[in-house]
Amino acid sequence: MSDVSLTVNGRRVSGTVEDRTLLVHFLRENLGLTGTHVGCDTSQCGACVIHVDGKAVKSCTMLAVQASGSEILTIEGLANGGDLHPVQAAFKEHHGLQCGFCTPGMIMTATDMIARHPEGLDEATVRTELEGNICRCTGYHNIVKAILAASKTMAKGSKTRTKRAA
Amino acid sequence: MGVEGIGARVARKEDKRFITGGGRYVDDMVVPGMKHAVFVRSPYAHAQIRKIDVKAAQAMPGVIGVLTGKELKADGIGNLICGWMIHSRDGTPMKMGAWSALAVDKVRYVGDAVVVVVADTKGQARDAAEAVEITYKELKSVTDASKAMDKGAPQIHPEAENNLIFDWDIGNADETEAAFKKAAHVVEMDIINNRLVPNAMEPRAALGHYDKAEDHYTCWTTSQNPHVARLVMSAFYNVAPENKLRVIAPDVGGGFGSKIYIYPEEIVCLWASKKTGVPVKWVADRTESFLCDAHGRDHHSHCAMAFDEDHKILGFKVETKANLGAYMSLFSSATPTYLYATLLSGQYDIPAIHANVKAIYTNTAPVDAYRGAGRPEAAFNVERMMEVAARQFGMSPAELRRKNFITAFPHQTPVIMNYDAGDFATSLDAAMKEADYAGFEKRRAKAKKAGKLRGIGFSCYIEACGIAPSAAVGSLGAGVGLWESAEVRVNAVGTIEVLTGSHSHGQGHETTFSQLVAQRLSVPLDSISIVHGDTDKVQMGMGTYGSRSGAVGMSAIVKALDKVEAKARKIAAHLLEADESDIVIENGELKVAGTDKSVPWFQMALAAYTAHNLPAGMEPGLKETAFYDPANFTFPAGCYICEVEIDPETGHTDIVQFVAADDFGNIINPMIVEGQVHGGVAQGVGQALLEGANYDETGQLLTASYMDYTMPRAGDLPSFKVSTSSTPSPSNPLGLKGCGEAGAIGSPPAVINAITDAIGTENITMPATPQKVWAAIRTVKH
């Protein structure tokens, strides 16, 4: 057994886990954060994507103990109180989800993707970058649309903020 | 109604919980004292069980119980059944072998459940499962249906000689033979419809909880039809009487057919909960899903189509071998018969059709309905034949189809179905225009200059949805009726709850069903809640599959709304001292037409519950129930055009455009309908290009993970061009046809017709992988 201590969605948490416990299971079972899902055994489907120290990570590829000391962001911590994150809002507006199971991973991947492409995104880039996330419901059409729209909204938002700062 | 009613592009009400991590799936459920189950499964495709030794496993840390099939049988748990009786052409009933939820003396496919281990944690259960010792005697196995009836093939069930479950006919053999005798042209082909794994993203799961004090069971399960699960587990599996069994299907992460059936695991979790005294949860690994979820398709067919000199179809003959796997799943017999061969007329006026289907046991996972269920297999056969025939005749594939379209309705086909509405030419024209078919040859020439092979393919599919008239399916062997129920409850403050037997696992019923109510009762969407998926809340229902939630489920809501509206009018007329026939419902009020007299909706509702001033003799309250049994199937149809570009050096196929022009009748929410088409087309493209479940010669599933089974990813697909036209269904009050499966039915032939057009040979099977395409190109001179 090992002790882990980390920050999840801005809150300090700790626990004692079996050494073999995956980060995703620690989040779901110890912390009750069931928004992060498990869809496969082989780190292929991306339903478990979260952010670890600001980067998108498949939480089934990491042991909980490896994440000790990290800052974690999960789908539950993405919205700002009652205000949806622009990616969440775009998924709703553009019908980027159906059954909702892959959705948390898709949204966490998309926020990371948009952050890594401050120059903006095009359809081909979005499709290539979604390689690690599988959706069986939407055919990706509206997911791609939602990510492109969110990327535009967030670019506008950051320009407004830059102007204000100036 | 405009912004929120029928036809409005309303964003989904259910989205908020899914985009914020608040969805509640079975694996998210926690019950005090809950423990975890892991199944020990057969590593052999076919073997006798000689000995099961559980002693070492029982002694492992955290283990609460290690249970076997013998104990299950001793407790009277019944065998799994197939609920649709098919008779062979000689009149004998189908030959169903026994399927025990835990195998007792023999295993019949890799993944067959043998032992269940219950332990404090899933890890401990897994460790203990490793310690269960089972001695097998391996037997010869067969996985290919086309070989399972050969002399010397292993006998899988004693009940089914030569592994033949049934040998079934539809249509008229003599008339079809006569049609072929007078034919000017005959087109013939062998067609394989590849085996697929449904792969809903949420793996199947079950949580069984036996409450000793109440002698009552609760089962949370990943089900498309919790009421059918309760019915079957009570009536056939002897788990518990219906009044002692509550089945809850909460948020369910996709189904595509695979979550219709009642599988061994939920039965075992309920039984094991009583046996061990603890709530028992099981969640499938993805590999377990690959091994044990019901697979789809797996047909081998020989097709022949007869034409006259003018290229009008005279007759169609089909012989199909359908692989049903090792056991007959719940509706497995209906899929290759009444859901398949009844659609072999396609969109065409075919005077004579005859089909023979042999359903065959093999040592593979059970096969049952997967998105489209039989109809994709029918559409693939018909639409490949039409394209190949057009090429043989040197005709435009569009013109051959147009020449043979059914244009007058109702139309009785030779294979049971009576098409009640449609306009096939409109869809064909719309698709050709959107695809710029006229400009294709220029695009082909340009691609050729760049060293690429470009091709275009059509598919004019038709399918049958809105299943189904209960008396009709009863006469064809169904063990259940296929009506739907609804209850509309108007609360005292005027808010509304709709209880439905349909189940949403991605379809967005909370939104579309609310749109219907908002339209009818002129109340805001936010004041309407849709309740589904719990047998303690909704009395009875048949669930969601076969694109039936709109045509059947919403029709039941319409019937209940009719009753609610009638009573609301009576109350309003009484309060306003007006005639009932003068009451109109609009803008949240019940008004007397042509006056300024009105009562707000919520006040009328309050009046129904205070009952201080109701019409004489009226019962208090405002709540109505209805059951709706459809009058006919509905017939969604459309035209899909796929354009591909192939790199002859690598065999890679790029879908450069995909056009879908569908006729779904009336539409409640176009945004949701388009989403259904996108998803269906992606699954169809997956079948055509990427997906295939492959067993090796010893019965091991080679494609049992996402590393081996190619799921369509974003980079494999284009954005789709979708549009709709409408000939409303005359068979239900809303004129709906259904849209859930069309994409998966219509797209595979369009993709393969495009590829074969590009490479110049018909000789390719699905999935048309780069390797197969590359090899096929090398058989043709370019």
Shape of chain A: globular
CATH level-3 fold name of the largest domain in chain B: Aldehyde Oxidoreductase, domain 4
Helix segment tally of chain A: 5
Number of strands of chain A: 5
Characterize the largest beta sheet of chain A: strand count, sense, and whether it forms a barrel: 5 strands, mixed
CATH superfamily of the largest domain in chain B: Aldehyde oxidase/xanthine dehydrogenase, molybdopterin binding domain
What structural category do the secondary elements of chain B indicate?
A: alpha+beta
The helix-and-strand class of chain A reads: alpha+beta
Largest interface: A-B, 56 and 59 residues
Helix content of chain B: 25-40%
Q: What's the gyration radius of chain B in Å?
A: 27 Å
**Mean pLDDT across every amino acid position of chain B:** 97
**Which range does the strand content of chain B fall in?**
15-25%
Instruction: Tell me the count of domains of chain B.
Output: 3
Record the SSE blueprint:
The complex is a heterodimer of chains A (166) and B (782).
Chain A: E1 2-8, E2 11-17, H1 23-30, E3 49-52, E4 55-58, E5 71-73, H2 86-93, H3 103-116, H4 123-129, H5 141-165
Parallel strand pairs in A: 1-5
Antiparallel strand pairs in A: 1-2, 3-4, 3-5
Chain B: H1 15-19, E1 35-41, E2 47-53, H2 55-58, E3 63-68, H3 69-74, E4 106-107, E5 113-119, H4 122-131, E6 133-138, H5 145-148, E7 164-171, H6 173-181, E8 185-193, E9 205-211, E10 216-221, H7 226-235, E11 245-248, H8 264-276, E12 280-283, H9 286-292, E13 299-307, E14 313-325, E15 352-361, H10 375-393, H11 397-404, E16 411-412, E17 418-419, H12 424-434, H13 440-449, E18 453-462, H14 470-475, E19 484-490, E20 496-500, H15 509-521, E21 528-531, H16 549-576, E22 583-586, E23 589-592, E24 598-600, H17 601-610, E25 623-628, E26 637-647, E27 652-663, H18 670-690, E28 721-725, H19 742-759, H20 770-777
Parallel strand pairs in B: 1-12, 10-11, 14-15, 20-21, 27-28
Antiparallel strand pairs in B: 1-5, 2-4, 2-6, 3-5, 7-15, 8-13, 9-10, 9-12, 13-14, 16-17, 18-26, 19-20, 19-25, 22-23, 23-24, 26-27
Helix pairs in contact in B: 10-11, 10-19, 15-16, 16-17, 18-19
InterPro entries (chain A): 2Fe-2S-bd, 2Fe-2S-bd_dom_sf, 2Fe-2S_ferredoxin-like_sf, 2Fe-2S_ferredoxin-type, Beta-grasp_dom_sf, Diverse_Oxidoreductases
GO molecular function, one term (chain A): metal ion binding
Domain 2Fe-2S ferredoxin-type (chain A): 2-78
